[in-house]
Write a structure and sequence with these properties.
Chitinase A, domain 3; single chain
Length: 387
Amino acid sequence: MRAFLSSSKLLVLFLTVALPLVLTGCNEEKVGEKKEEKKKTEAPAAPKKEEKKAEQPKKSAQNFKLDQEPDEPALATLLKLDPNHVVARVEGEEITIAQLIEAVKSSPDQIKSLPLSKIYTSMVKRLRDMHALVKASAKAGVDKIADVQKKIQEASDAVKVKHFVDEKMSAKITPEFLKKQFDEFMKVYKKDGKSEKEFRLMVAIVKDKKSAEDVLLRVKKGEKFEDLVMEVSTDDKVKETKGELGYVRFSELPKELAEKVQKAATGVIVDSAIELGKDKWAVFKKMDQRDVPDPTFEEVAPDLKKVVMPQFFSEVLADVLKETTSEIIDYKTGQPMDEKAEEAKAKAEIEKTEKASKAPSSDDSKAPLDASKKGDKSSTPIAKPSA
C-alpha cells in the first residue's frame, strides 16, 4: 500500500511537473520538425526565384528618359541611345537598339518622322515577331528544303550583285559629275530666269454650282469667307482643316485654276467657282503668294543619280563582260552566236519598223476610183461596201 502511495505521489509529481515539461519539449520538437518541414517544402522555391530573376532583362545604364523635343524623330532619339541596349529577347537571343535603328531606317519617311514613343512598341514587336518566325522555320527544317535553298541562293546572289554594281557605279557617278548634271537641270528649271510661284489657298467645297455661286454672292455682300467655309462645306477634310490648303505650287494646280489664282489679288476670292469633279464645286481664296525656293544640290542629287544610273549600269556590265569569257548558243544550230551580228540585225528590224510607221498609209480605195475614170471596168469592185 505504501509502495502504491509512493508511486501515486510520484505519479502526481509526474503529472503536475514533469509531464508539462515533457509536453513542452515535445511541442518544441514538433514545432522544430514543422519548421524543418516548412524549410524543406520552401527550399525548392529558391531556385525558381533565381530562374525568374535570370529571365528579367539585363539592367543597363541606358536612360530612355532623355531630354528631347516631344516631336523629335524616332531615329534621332535612337542614335543617342546605347546601341547594345537590349529591347527584346527571343529564346535567349537578344534584340538590341542597333537592330531597332536599322529597322527604323528601312521604314517609310512618315514612320521615321514620328517620335520614338509613338513607334517603339510596334517596331520592337515587329522585330520580335520576325525573330520568332525565323526560329520556328529553322526548327521546322524549312532551310533544308531544296526549293527554299534555291531561293535563298538566288536572294544571296542578288544582294551580292547589287552591292558590287552599286560600288562600281558610285565610283563612276562622282559628285563632280552630279554637280554638272545639277547645273544643267537648273538651266531648264529656270529657263525664263524666274522662280515658280506658290500660293497659300483656302477653299470651300460644296455639292453643286448653284451653291458655289451662292457662296460668292454672300462674300460680295460682306460675309466672312472663313465663316462660310465651316457653314457650307460638304467635305469633312475641308472642315477639319478649316479650309486651309497651305502652299500649293502653280504647276500643281489645274491649268484653269492656276491662271485664275495667279491673276487674283492676295486676300481676295477667286471670282468664279471651279468644278473639281462629280458633286464637287469649289470656291478659293488666295491668302498669300511667294516664290518657290530654288532646289539645292543636296535635295536634287539623289534623283539625278537615279536618272543616270541605267546609263552607268550599262558601262559597268560592259566592263565586266570584257573580263569574262562567255558565249550564247544558237538553239537551232547548237553553235555559238555572233552577238554583234544579231544586235545589228535587231537594230535594222527596229529601224525598218519605225520607217514603216512614219510612212503615209496607202489608200486601196483610190485604185478602183482611178481605174474607173479611165474606163477600166475590170477594176471596178463587184460588190459595194455595205452602208
